[in-house]
Amino acid sequence: MHAVVTGGAGFIGSHLTEELMRRGRQVTVLDDLSNGNRSNLASVASKITIVERDISRPYAELFEDTKVDELYSLACYPRQISFQNPRRDCEVNLIGTINGLDLARKKGAKMVYASNTGIVSNPKTVPVDETFSPNPLTPYDTHKLASEYLLRVYSKVHNIRSIVLRFATVYGPRQRVNEKLGWRPVIPEFASKLLRGMSPTIDGDGAQTRDFIFVKDIVSGVISAMESNSDEGDFFILGTNSETSIMDLYRMISETLGVRIVPSHGPRKPEEIARMRYDYSKACNRFGWTPKTTLAEGLRQTIEDLKHDYQNMKLS
Amino acid sequence: MHAVVTGGAGFIGSHLTEELMRRGRQVTVLDDLSNGNRSNLASVASKITIVERDISRPYAELFEDTKVDELYSLACYPRQISFQNPRRDCEVNLIGTINGLDLARKKGAKMVYASNTGIVSNPKTVPVDETFSPNPLTPYDTHKLASEYLLRVYSKVHNIRSIVLRFATVYGPRQRVNEKLGWRPVIPEFASKLLRGMSPTIDGDGAQTRDFIFVKDIVSGVISAMESNSDEGDFFILGTNSETSIMDLYRMISETLGVRIVPSHGPRKPEEIARMRYDYSKACNRFGWTPKTTLAEGLRQTIEDLKHDYQNMKLS
Question: Is residue A309 part of a domain?
Fold first, then answer.
């Protein structure tokens, strides 16, 4: 069984690649290394193929003489910087999808597409499930939503098998701030500042909530979705049906690290979503998936990894 | 008052450009001439600026030293050929929108965006109004829908003034089959075949209906929308709230031409929409627009123009 993972050298992609290897797949990773890193794949590098490739360029040609059974489309341009370069966002997050559909069509592969719960912004109530109307707040949201529609179009018209997963806020080991890209996921951002004795900045008052989901739970959901019989471009939320405010998260990270620093507060961003909590029962009912890792346990593993990284940096 | 019209050398764009001139605007047309034609602007060519330009390349730089008050975004890649080149469709129909938003933002211009009623496909009832859920059937529909979302995102986050218009099936003088592109709008397709004594091909049984709207009615709607106080990316249907089957249309064209030929029937396309009839009361209520031209009268003018063209071709 041959699986192609776009963004496979990234944070989520590398965990997925490892798990696919563990389950006996042959894996090819496509990654332009703008946000991914070969070191994320150190443990499996000798057993997989890594191709440095921007998915906004057609890539079906790479597999002309190879069968492809599964396409995991994870490569993306980050939401946080989507307004800085909306054209690039469109190229990666939408034209990249068209290129994935091309490959899936040519190879008869099933495609899992990583979308985002942020497509439904500022809902009137939580938890949000799959019946809520989309309300994009950034070019990223718009292009992810368009990709979801496109998968259904190709399923209807060209019978391409696919499934869409809307991820909640994923965290875990290997997630890093990318200074060059300007990408600052909240947990590594807070923890790395605190480890350096600096005061992290919270957007607004920090009462906004997120549904944090551990990367290994996402990986199990992604593979369950691929192996399920849902293949008409239908979409499923992967979340935990719980919410944590940014202030509470800050306290948990600070306690886990044993570092006490008063955070600063910056302006609230207009595209900021107030509350995030996502009902995953559709995924649970359809392919028996539930998240297993508590935030406390996930944070422990995540911070362990960040501390390790920090200590290595100090030593080098 | 300076108006920029993308796709201004095209069928609808050229009628709009003429009307804007008539109303005293200074007009710059951007057109890559892939489907537009300089001859469409013959009557106003000496009084306007025509720039040959693909809107999928950023174009705000063209107007660095010029004020721009109005941006009419009409350039598009046609729905009919959207599956043949979905990447190109995305570049024109979505990245082109990003480039338009860039210009609108830099210049403080208001943007009118030409979208399409086909975004709502195969509704359970007709007439369709603005409350119906989108259900794209082609890459074209998907990219038009994404553009609509993007205009609202930019309105919310960057206060860009904009308005979206969903056109029904527009027809009128200057609409031509484009053999090179593979674009075959139904009225010129039928009429030009009949004029040549050939049998036109109808997709499926011809019972599918369209809401045909005359180009001059669209032009008045577009300008009314621009001049209205709706500027938060809201969307409005421009249709006639009536429907005509393709078979009935065929008979009307055949009678107007005085040519009787039995049509052929081809396979029905999967992206074909069964019924189209669009309620325009939101546009009527908000900016007082109603369509004025009957299909009989519009067809008369359209066929007059096609006959004229055909006779010129025969003479040359």
Answer: no
**Domains contained in chain B, number:** 1
Please give the structure tokens belonging to residue A303.
């911070």
Residues in B closer than 8 angstroms to A271, CB to CB, are: 157
For chains A and B, what is the number of CB pairs under 8 angstroms? 80
* Partner-chain residue, chosen from B87, B138, B156, that has the shortest CB–CB distance to A98: B87
| pLDDT tens digits in sequence order for chain B, 316 residues long | 999 999 999 999 999 999 999 999 999 999 999 999 999 999 999 999 999 999 999 999 999 999 999 999 999 999 999 999 999 999 999 999 999 999 999 999 999 999 999 999 889 999 999 999 999 999 999 999 999 999 999 999 999 999 999 999 999 999 999 999 989 999 999 999 999 999 999 999 999 999 999 999 999 999 999 999 999 999 999 999 999 999 999 999 999 999 999 999 999 988 889 999 999 999 999 999 999 999 999 999 999 999 998 888 888 7
Burial code of B124-163, b = ≥16 C-beta within 10 A, e = fewer?
Answer: eebbbbbebebbbbbbbbbbbbbbbbbbbbbbbeeebbbb
Give Cα B41 to chain centroid, integer Å.
17
* Within-domain flag for B72: yes
Query: Cis (ω within 30 of 0) for the bond into A123?
Result: no
Residues of B in contact with A92 (CB under 8 A): none
Q: What CATH number did the domain enclosing A55 receive? A: 3.40.50.720
Quick check: is A106 in a domain?
yes
Are B145 and A149 an interchain contact pair (Cβ–Cβ within 8 Å)? yes
Using a CB-CB distance cutoff of 8 angstroms, which residues of chain B are in contact with residue A58?
Answer: 87
Using the Cβ of A137 and the Cβ atoms of chain B, whether some distance falls under 8 Å is answered with yes
0.90 exceeded by pTM: yes
A180 in a structural domain: no
Selecting from B90, B150, B152 the residue whose C-beta is nearest the C-beta of A95 gives: B90
Do B259 and B302 form a contact (C-beta atoms < 8 A)?
no
Question: Which chain B residues have a beta carbon less than 8 Å from that of A87?
Answer: 58, 95, 98-99
Tell whether B96 lies on the interface with A, counting CB pairs under 8 A.
no
Q: Could A136 and B153 be called an inter-chain contact, meaning their C-beta atoms sit closer than 8 Å?
A: yes
Q: Which residue range is the domain that position B42 belongs to?
A: 2-171+212-243+277-292
Residues 6+ apart with CB under 8 A from B290: B280, B284
